[in-house]
Design brief:
Blueprint: E1 8-17, E2 41-44, E3 47-50, H1 54-72, H2 97-102, H3 106-111, E4 120-122, E5 126-127, E6 134-143, E7 150-162, E8 165-172, H4 176-190, E9 207-218, E10 227-228, H5 231-235, H6 237-242, E11 245-248, E12 251-254, E13 257-260, E14 264-265, E15 273-274, E16 280-284, H7 287-305
Antiparallel strand pairs: 1-8, 1-9, 2-3, 4-8, 5-8, 6-7, 9-16, 10-14, 11-12, 12-13, 15-16
Helix pairs in contact: 1-4, 4-7
């Protein structure tokens, strides 16, 4: 299924810290004047800057998607830390692609496992204006749970307190239910319900985000440009069944995934159109309209989660 491009969603985001944030560098070096825990840095546009690593952001999004999925239906997400309940532990590299996909849970189909490649890709977040980025040094200690005294420390932490960082999420061969679940996770980050980085229980990691751009792309013309089709519909009935999408009550329904046969109706005034490269696209920069797309995807998520 990854050998073809059925559809693609590209989401441009701006992430803004709403309090101290720390994503620790793996190696702080030998300089005794630097904090014990330094914020991760890299070279970007010719200067060394703090940044938000793509794998860290993807891990936060996946973890929260798992939490949402397990809250409504345990069958939608395996436990990657338990070999008895992990999708990857029961699959082999030599297994056919359709079997691997068919046997994986909703979360593994989105983010991948040790055998299946993920559909969600997250880029590093770089500062829009490095001059606006602010970091400060804070002191901390670890308290002995028995005696209430200092067990470790004091130690120094370099935390991010100001700045704006742009990143991008790409989702290929998505179903509408998957977009709905991803939208819920991003909404919760925007509402400061989900933290990132180190020390979330200490009050660190609060961020918010804004949706800067959403681009939906289809290499082939959809049957109805005013409706949003998912991957299960675009595969066709026979192949959809092979990959784990079964026809039930007039809907393409698979283990952990569902799509309306006719696609999801786009909000009023929006439609896919053919661009100069013969792709069928919808390109939005209005945050209200982007959130309108997310809300149009929620019914598909509710259907697969058994909430309807």
């Amino acid at each position: 299924m990854h050998k073809r491009l059925l559809n693609e969603a590209t989401i441009d985001l701006t992430i803004i810290p709403k309090g101290p944030v720390l994503i620790k560098a793996s190696d702080t070096g030998a300089d005794p004047t630097r904090p014990d825990m330094e914020f991760v840095r890299t070279w970007h546009n010719g200067e060394r800057v703090v940044y938000l690593p793509g794998p860290s952001l993807k891990g936060v999004i996946r973890s929260h998607c798992e939490r949402i999925a397990r809250t409504v239906n345990d069958a939608l997400s395996c436990d990657p830390l338990d070999n008895k309940k992990s999708c990857g532990a029961h699959l082999q590299q030599a297994d056919p692609g359709d079997k691997v996909h068919r046997s994986s849970c909703l979360i593994c189909r989105m983010f991948g496992n040790t055998v299946l490649a993920g559909r969600v890709r997250t880029k590093d977040g770089y500062p829009i204006d490095p001059d606006q980025v602010r970091t400060e040094e804070r002191n901390g200690v670890a308290i002995d749970r028995v005696y209430g005294s200092v067990a470790v420390g004091p130690f120094q932490m370099e935390v991010l307190t100001a700045g704006a960082f742009t990143t991008q999420i790409q989702v290929r061969n998505f179903t509408i239910a998957q977009l709905g679940l991803l939208a819920l996770a991003l909404r919760d980050i925007k509402l400061e319900r989900v933290g990132i980085g180190f020390g979330k229980s200490r009050g660190l990691g609060h961020v918010t985000l804004s949706f800067d751009r959403l681009t939906l792309r289809y290499p082939r013309r959809p049957s109805d440009p005013t409706r949003l089709p998912g991957a299960a519909l675009l595969l066709g009935a026979d192949e959809a069944e092979r990959y784990g999408y079964l026809k039930v009550n007039g809907h393409q329904f698979g283990y952990g995934q569902a799509d309306d046969d006719a696609g999801r109706q786009l909000p009023d005034g929006l439609a896919l159109h053919e661009d100069d490269w013969s792709d069928w696209t919808l390109d939005l920069t209005d945050e209200a309209k982007i959130e309108g797309i997310w809300k149009a995807c929620i019914p598909a998520w509710k259907q697969v989660a058994g909430l309807d």
